[in-house]
Amino acid sequence: MSPAWTARVLTLFPEMFPGPLGISLAGKALENGVWALETVDIRAFARDKHRSVDDTPFGGGPGMVMRPDVLDAALAGATGAALAGGQALGVTGQGRMIYLSPRGRLLDQALVKDLAAGPGVVLLCGRYEGVDQRVLDSRVIEEVSLGDFVLSGGEPAALALIDACVRLLPGVMGNAGTAGEESFEGGLLEYPHYTRPAVWTDGQGVERGVPEVLLSGHHENVRAWRLAEAEAVTQARRPDLWRVYAEAHEAEWNAREAKRRRRRKNRLAGERSAETGEG
Ligand code: SAH
């Protein structure tokens, strides 16, 4: 059996895990050993008698900063423990070390795919004002952000990252086919979905139908409609994604347009020669 994809989470609040990851598909997969979760209580690595993990920031300012010595000991403990305990688990490597941070690169599906394809992840969850910079400088730690907003701790971000990875692991999603068509696949947001009833009366008494093409059973037309919808919603909502997509498809569009123009020219030339009686 191949070793299970493992999420190792360093946190001051291990009781937050598995939390929502313990139910539904991720929960079942966890139970079945498709993936594994290990939490490391950062406080267990505090050295003084108050078990303090944070201190006031040099230079002044509000809040507290997580201490580098405690964090480093926790990271060493986590990855060291992973070697010893990991062998028992059949884990060959711990995977990339990530600090969840609003200053990091934005988490996207491409990164999720990369992480899911590896042996797992080691996630450091910050609290308070964050962690002492030196611990980040002294190890190979990537910073990853969930988005341009500030959480009170890295735990919800870790849960989101793990969730996104776990659903890509083989055997987690019931219908393996669905993953290929989703938002961000091919650089687009997803097309809209409809299901039964075919006509639904909403709260205002308005009868709402379903786009005809979806009831047609014509697969090629359905595919074309969905692509057009995906392109439209992406262009309207996400100019950043749209720019990349448009650039990637520009050559293809230009080629198609050139072909159309050539055909039109040939047709017009044909008509002209028919009129003048030549050809
Ligand atoms: N003072 C920091 C915010 C600290 S929030 C700043 O302004 O950048 C406390 C912890 O929550 C952080 O250490 C980080 O681990 C986590 N966190 C907050 N926002 C996050 C986000 N958008 N993505 C990932 N983690 C986040």
Distance between the first and last residues' Cα: 73 Å
Indicate the proportion of strand residues.
15-25%
- Kindly provide the radius of gyration, computed on alpha-carbon positions and rounded to a whole number of angstroms: 27 Å
Low-confidence stretches: 81-92
Instruction: Give the helices and strands as they follow along the chain.
Output: EHEEEHEHEHEHEEHHH
Report the structural category.
alpha/beta
CATH class of the largest domain: Alpha Beta
Rounded average pLDDT: 92
What is the share of helical residues? 40-55%
Tell me, briefly, the overall form: elongated
The second-level CATH architecture of the largest domain is 3-Layer(aba) Sandwich
Strand line-up of the largest beta sheet: 2-1-6-5-7
Number of domains: 2
Bound molecules: S-adenosyl-L-homocysteine
Number of helices: 8
Structure summary, number of beta strands: 9
What oligomeric state is this?
single chain
> Per CATH, what is the topology of the largest domain?
Alpha/beta knot
Sketch the major β-sheet: 5 strands, parallel
